[in-house]
Specification:
5-stranded parallel beta sheet, 46% helix, 6-stranded mixed beta sheet, binds pyridoxal-5'-phosphate, 503 residues
Length: 503
């Protein structure tokens, strides 16, 4: 399988090259040259455990990797030790009162958010890709984070040979627990820095560095190359395809769907459009999907886009209680546009130019139609998010985090508007409720707590659940990183840290 760019029709790369480069030089994103169709394999795949299924999916897309290499990546990434169980994900029915919804818990990894599903394996893909595509080079992983990617990248890459990681997070745009997770990070090859701005500022700064030829040349002469752990990297998206197939087969095995051509809906709390795009790719490969339900918080640029066909980022930015979705420029939407516009690089390059020049672009009628046929969009504000947490807790005895609650709420909107109660729906549950303890606690109880850790104890008591040990143990961990810079200083910070880091 070769890869091409969404903006330049002449680019062709191997999987290893696409993973090492992260983003195409002209700013486009790498996509597979064609989508493999697995419809006839579903009955065989339905029998597989998670790791075996992952190997099957990866083999289709990483054709320059041997079967042994792929197996090695998977076995190192999804260990019982890292994911508290043999199967790294769990499907939990929320089916009281005849409802037809299932939460796909994707947060049993080391950092308690779904990002671990990809970021535990990306370092494996990347170190093997480096050997193939850029022997002798060391990778500097640059990452902008709205909270969860940063920590997951740090955990995934810490002490991985021939790599170093630099994470930029918006100073006031992450939860107290997310910040604490990052600033206390251990590992000899990691750096963390706050940016005085929001996530879009951090993401734009990182993207600028990726297209900065001077900086790249400087690094190249030191045998370093830049790569990305953001979901613009194909190696981040690919692992996410697996769990949508897996959840479908779970529904089949527990009888919620009767035959392997029954359709499901997939609802995803969305920020950068990575997780929901992986679901879309799974359907392109033959997973039977009726509708993708794209759930946004108050930063509802995607909901408006799905409703109107116009993407307009010229709007106020809100810091919400689902901070990992506080994004106005959803990078991976570019890959969807590419697919919806019959893979026209010309059309995609035009949309992206309009977006960067004017902050807005509009699809043509035909493309709007195909967008709306597959996608339902809805918005859930902070108050509704807390009400949803409370409702799910009261009615189902289940505690969900703020991001997951946004998706549950928008799924309910979908049911109300379409009347579709029949189609079983997988809702991506993207973080542990303990990652956003203060918000979640405020939804189910009125007690005031002295700090985040007192809140954890209170939430454990009220919900009769146990907080993940890796979060509670942060209490006594010393802070290692406290620097804050302006968004203009990111290039210099990178120069300084790769030298200081001595990578
Ligand atoms: C990153 C994140 C999201 C958004 O995922 P995208 O792939 O960026 O759309 C949703 N919820 C949580 C908890 C996250 O960490």
């Amino acid at each position: 399988m070769m890869y091409k760019s969404t903006r330049d029709p002449d680019i062709r790369l191997s999987a290893a090259q696409a993973i090492v480069q992260g983003i195409s030089p002209e700013g486009g994103l790498f996509v597979p040259e064609s989508m493999p169709n697995v419809s006839t394999q579903l009955s065989v795949w339905a029998e597989l455990d998670y790791k075996s299924l992952a190997k099957e999916v990866f083999a289709l897309f990483l054709s320059d990797f041997s079967a042994e290499e792929i197996s090695d990546c998977v076995e190192r990434a999804y260990t019982t030790e890292k994911f508290d169980d043999d199967e790294p994900v769990k499907l939990v029915p929320l089916t009281e009162q005849g409802r037809n919804r299932y939460l796909l818990e994707l947060w049993h990894g080391p950092t308690c958010a779904f990002k671990d599903m990809a970021l535990q394996i990306l370092p494996q893909f990347l170190t093997k890709s480096l050997k193939k595509a850029a022997p002798g080079k060391k990778a500097v992983i640059l990452t902008a984070t709205s909270g969860d990617t940063g920590k997951a990248a740090l955990e995934g890459f810490k002490d991985v040979p021939d790599t170093s990681v630099i994470v930029f997070y918006p100073q006031n745009g992450v939860s107290p627990m997310q910040k604490r997770q990052m600033v206390t990070q251990d590992g000899s090859n990691v750096t963390v820095c706050a940016i005085d701005g929001n996530f879009d500022d951090a993401q734009a700064a990182v993207k600028r560095i990726f297209t900065d030829d001077t900086l790249k040349a400087e690094m190249g002469s030191g045998d370093m190359l830049l790569s990305s752990a953001n979901s613009i990297n194909w190696g981040r998206l690919l692992p996410q395809i697996v769990y949508y197939f897996y959840s479908y087969f779970q529904l089949y095995r527990n009888g919620a769907i009767k035959s392997l051509d029954d359709k499901i809906n997939i609802a995803v709390p969305t920020g950068n459009f990575g997780n929901i795009l992986a679901a879309y790719y799974a359907s392109c490969m033959g997973l039977p999907v009726n509708r993708f339900i794209c759930a946004s918080n108050t930063n509802c640029v995607l909901t408006d886009f799905i409703l109107t066909g116009t993407y307009d980022r010229r709007r106020e930015f809100f810091a919400t209680n689902s901070p990992s979705m506080d994004i106005l420029v959803s990078s991976n939407l570019e890959r969807l546009l590419f697919a919806l516009s019959d893979e026209s690089c010309e059309a995609v390059a035009k949309y992206m130019r309009e977006l960067s020049d004017t902050g807005v672009y509009s699809l043509d009628e035909k493309t709007i139609e195909s967008l709306q046929k597959s996608f339902f969009g809805g918005t859930c504000n902070d108050v509704e998010t807390l009400q949803t947490i409370k409702k799910v807790f009261t009615e189902e005895g289940y505690l969900c985090d703020t991001h997951t609650a946004v998706a549950v709420n928008v799924y309910d909107q979908y049911v109300q508007q379409t009347g579709d109660t029949a189609t079983p729906t997988v809702i991506a549950s993207t973080a542990s409720p303990y990652k956003f303890t203060s918000s979640v606690l405020s939804a189910v109880d009125s007690c005031k707590c002295a700090d985040e850790f007192a809140a954890i104890a209170a939430l454990e008591r009220i919900s009769k659940t146990k907080a993940p040990a890796q979060l509670f143990s942060l209490k006594d961990k010393p802070v290692r990183f406290s620097e804050v810079i302006s968004k203009e200083q990111t290039e210099d910070f990178v120069r300084r840290s790769v030298r200081i880091g001595g990578v």
